Amino acid sequence: MFQEFQLKNNVENNETENMKKIKVGLVLMALFLSTSTMAQKGLDFTKLLPEEWSKSTIISEENYNVWGTNIVKGKDGKYHAIYSRWPKSRGHHGWVTHSEIAHAVSDKLTGPYEFRNVVLPARGKQYWDGDCTHNPHIMEHEGKYYLYYMGNRGSGFWDGTPADRMPSISDDEEWWVNRNNQRIGLAIADDLNGDWKRFDQPLINVVEGRKMVSTPVVSQRLDGQFLMTYKYVKDDGSERGGRVVHVTAISREPEGPFVDTDIPFITHPTASFAIDDHLEWVYNGNYYCLAKDSRGVWSDHPEGSTMLFESDDMGLDWKPAKNFLVIEAGEIKWTDGTTTKTKRTADMPKFYMEDGIPKALIVAVLPKDSEDSYSVVIPLKTPEPGTEAFPYQVTEYSDDYELSAAIDRSFNQYPSHVNAENELYSQFRYTKLTGFDYNDGDATVTRRDPSKILFENGKYYVWYTKRDTPIPPVGRFSNDYKIMETSEDGLVWNDTIPTTDWDLGEIWYATSEDGFHWEEQGVAVARPAYPTPGWRAVATPDILKFKGKYYLYSLVSGKK
Question: CB-based burial of residue 301 (10 Å sphere; 0-12 exposed, 13-18 middle, 19+ buried)?
């Protein structure tokens, strides 16, 4: 359906005005569009894991502890492991004093991996990360590799100690010097086999009230922004500090700057150290997190067990998932029939990903009564779809669905599983518009489906669907309201109670002089009387200017 009408046009159509129209059109999207995503709920991560792990997938070094291993497929087609290592002679707690980030390569995901080089070595106490680099987290974005890590420097005490001197948390004050100097850094490379650019300043430094910061994990949200989760220790004036707090930060670029959201990450009402060693990712429009129950407060499972948390698609509202337990701490069963008792069972989890799907989980293991750690690559099964609808992300299960031509193009020819990696995708800063009343947000008033913006007579014009009803939509088959009743002439619909957001809607229009403050002008196209099409709703307009006339197209709802 379209309506034809005419406006007086006395505005020059120059480049400046066109740019103003574009900007105003983008700003207006903030009023009408929602970024919420329908997500698949109920992920059971245990179904992705094998019951037994294979010793053939262990990543280890003869003289070094191995920890926090990331695996990425490089431009050379090989698998690259980026991990922390430190001399076994320094013991497990030498991670905070002697760790360095290293690089190994394999032809297969599950190994064996051959050491190639140290990526981030010690570089001198003139640098904030001069003595130690640890807890790497690597992400590839637009052909570059971003390596987030913890770095620190000590007082120089450890430089004069024997190679077999093991740092002690309980006995060495100098251990705490390194620990309290932890900061978060970033290194960038064009190729995994090339050089990494390091920076003279941390990416995340301490601020007042924070004693140290560490353990960064960065992921890309569906809106294209980058979410960092990390921890800090509250500075209470003591050597060790107070509560361990996990927080979130956002950036529009992977290199930052990251700005704290002031929204806590995962918290527990009683624990001073709610979680540790966490990993976040997006799957089927939902955010998930694997995290270690570091103090055994989340369940009756052993301390150190791995748990699953979930959030909305923004990664800012976390709660325990329905299927909470992922890996129970205490022991590992191997495919050769043996069992290893563990002090650390599945620390510092990382994924090997392909097209946004986790294909392997890599965890760090410290056997019980041992100082020697290693990593294990655990191949994962692909999650089965949890709904009858076509899955949000394409997997091998997608072939089981009969697709229309449009859906087939969308899912099988789309260039990336991440919306923001589409070359036509853009990011805009949203600004709340003024001049529109929403009755305190009680859902009785809705404005949606804005048309293109026209600039005429020195003003901006927009047309949109508006519904203003006594109550919010109640659904077509409401048990509480009589939406329709049967008479001798057939169904009779209630004309004041909406069933959906656009039901009983009409096309309204508004004008603005600057694109930010708007004045609603009234109805542009009203609902006609029954039984004319549109008697139930006139909605979803768009505007076309052609040869001096204006054509308003819309959807009509309601049939006889």
Answer: middle
